[in-house]
Write a structure and sequence with these properties.
Blueprint lengths: L2 H16 L4 H8 L3 H8 L6 H10 L6 H6 L25 H7 L9
Length: 110
């Protein structure tokens, strides 16, 4: 299992809990089963159709999961630059940019 899937899973759990939703609530909004939500939140690589449905149900911008997953989603993220300013010595995990890209910026990601 990839660290990117684990990161995505943690973000989904935080977003769901911040909204006060159960896994069943998210499943109903995404038109998927509770088993799919449980697998996503466990960090198991889901099929991309279900993942896009969860992304939409959470109200996140289309493509945010692709940014988080990078090469795990089968994309070449060599052109993606998350740290655009500051020292290269300071390692940037991209969380600031991800907070800006999510529709609900009131969630405390980490």
């Amino acid at each position: 299992m990839s660290g990117n899937y684990e990161r995505l899973a943690a973000m989904i759990v935080k977003a769901r809990e911040a909204r006060g939703w159960s896994q069943s609530d998210l499943a109903n909004l995404a038109y998927v089963t509770e088993v799919v939500i449980a697998r996503v939140e466990a960090g198991n690589p889901p099929n991309m159709v279900a993942l896009k449905a969860v992304e939409q149900a959470l109200g996140w911008l289309p493509g945010i999961f692709d940014l988080i997953l990078g090469q795990d989603a089968g994309q070449d993220d060599g052109d993606v630059v998350l740290a655009v300013d500051g020292d290269d010595e300071d390692e940037d995990d991209g969380s600031g940019e991800l907070r800006e890209l999510t529709v609900d910026s009131s969630i405390e990601w980490a």
